[in-house]
Amino acid sequence: MQPNIRTTNRLSGGQLITGTGTATGEFISIDVIADAKFNVLTGNVSSVANVTSGSALTIPAGRTIDGYFTTITLHSGTVIAYNK
After folding, report:
1. I need a surface site. Which of 13, 32, 33, 82 has the fewest CB within 10 A?
2. Cα gap 25→11, rounded to integer Å
3. What Rg do the C-alpha atoms of the chain give, in angstroms?
4. Residue 21 has what DSSP assignment?
């Protein structure tokens, strides 16, 4: 099994996204600061977001989602999306 290797060094900066905020760009990692639910999470990670808040998966604070993302819209919570 391969070790978990972070795909960003976080030196490229990022965006703080809160509440029902939206961010677009090229993101490679998302840190969840406060429990978050995603309305839209466009990228190569599926089954996390749902347009209905009650059906969206809750990602607890302290988790990181690695992948490739171009649009992030929250129902609730706070995240930092790190640039590619």
Report:
1. 13
2. 16
3. 12
4. -
C-alpha atoms less than 13 angstroms from C-alpha of 20 in its C-beta half-sphere: 4
pTM of the model: 0.85
Position 15: which residue type? Answer: Q
Q: Shortest CA distance to 70 belongs to which of 33, 34, 45, 37?
A: 45
**Residue 61: both structure tokens together:** 């604070």
* Residue range 36-58, pLDDT digits in tens: 999 999 999 988 899 998 899 99
- Asked whether residue 54 is domain-assigned, the answer is yes
Q: How far apart are CA 44 and CA 53, in angstroms?
A: 21
Round to whole Å and give the CA distance between 84 and 14. 9
Q: 67 in a domain, yes or no?
A: yes
Concatenating the DSSP letter of every residue in 32-61 gives EEEEEEEEEEEES--SS--SSGGGSPEEPT
Nearest residue to 78 via CA among 44, 31, 43, 45: 31
